[in-house]
User: What shape does this take?
Amino acid sequence: MQRSLVSRCSLIQATRQVRGISNASKELESRRARALVGGGKDRIVAQHEKGKLTARERIELLVDAGSFREYDMFVEHSCSHFGMDHPSKKFPGDGVITGHGVINGRKVFVFSQDFTVFGGSLSSMHAAKICKVMDKAVEVGAPVIGLNDSGGARIQEGVDSLGGYADIFLRNVMVSGVIPQISLVMGPCAGGAVYSPAMTDFTFMVKDSSHMFVTGPDVVEQVTKEVVTFEELGGAMTHTKKSGVAHKAFENDIDALSQLRDLFGFLPLNNKEKPPIRYTADPCDRTTPALNYIIPPSTNQPYNILDVINTVIDEGDFFEIMPTYAKNIVVGFARMDGRPVGIVGNQPNEKAGCLDINSSVKGARFVRFCDAFNIPLVTFVDVPGFLPGTDQEYGGIIRQGAKLLYAFAEATVPKITVITRKAYGGAYDVMSSKHIRGDVNYAWPSAQIAVMGAEGAVAILYRQKKKSLGKFTVSCISLIGDQVKVISRM
Assistant: This one.
């Protein structure tokens, strides 16, 4: 009788446990279902009508199929002010999806802000999720990619929200140069939110749907009386052509995520690894007769340095960085014999290839990234000097130009320099010359290495003999162009 009673009690207890587990499972499934729809189906429809993907759809396109593992799906905000404690104001995930996955089999950590939940605004818990995924990325030694689509700080949380931003900023600084950081702005990014993308290695935007600014058009009009649209103030074209804040603009979300996968293939996972090698059917010892005809016989005739670059790299596959900003210098990633390299080249088609403030800063930042992540540098030189003018001098060309010089001199990765035509004045020194630890420096038959061009040199040296300037100019040109004498001194 006693055994029977004990058995019945055990059965009842086990039944209750099963029911409890079943109820807990149902609750988890309910929360998971809520988390998967973010702010709700209506807001998802609104997101699609704007031509934008949802936060989850973006992650699915970015990483390899089925590889994403999400963190903290059920986290909710902790704010109780302004009616935020009402159940209708609670959303699992709190407006950001975080986790890790793989891109072409290589690990990556991702956070994607969900505009359908409170406009993607950042709360303390939202920030904590981002910080956690950044900490995990450093711990594992893998890149972190942020998909930004946020209206800024969550006003209801006040200073707690601002503190969350500062926590993220600190991590941006601490992991800089340790793991690659990439930001893709796919919607609004305003106020303090803009500083995190600005501190990452690469910042990309989507045309027509993304905007970045510290203060919006309404505030600008109120303070300065300027009337400006969102697109004019902080659109993708503004930041890729004028300000240089963004490194590239893509046509739409799908194009952006696809190209981001391409970029990822050039980068190592961290600063202790070498860049990934990819098989190529393009032989490294192939002949390239086109190189004999790309550079014009006239030293004053422009040409496109991209024609040179695309000819010597694997399969003409060049991922250019900042293609529409400071176009007088070209920077980007390519492969040679399957190995990633960083390409830097003066662009004679723009400002004759002169270095100026913007091009110096653009080049310096790229060189330092390559140096931090073990990516060899190949530099193509055709530079007549630094751009003259009061705008440049007042803008600090001396200070800004020194940044490129410093970056090349500091870099310890392998550095190959090819002088395709002009290498004049201080700009010759700056462009990875042998004097600042260039490992191998080549000069094409068309190369001219000198303090300045023949005409300028003659005008100074023989200014007292104006009638004979033409004769001396011809003589000076022959001296500058004599590569046998140059090579004999190397």
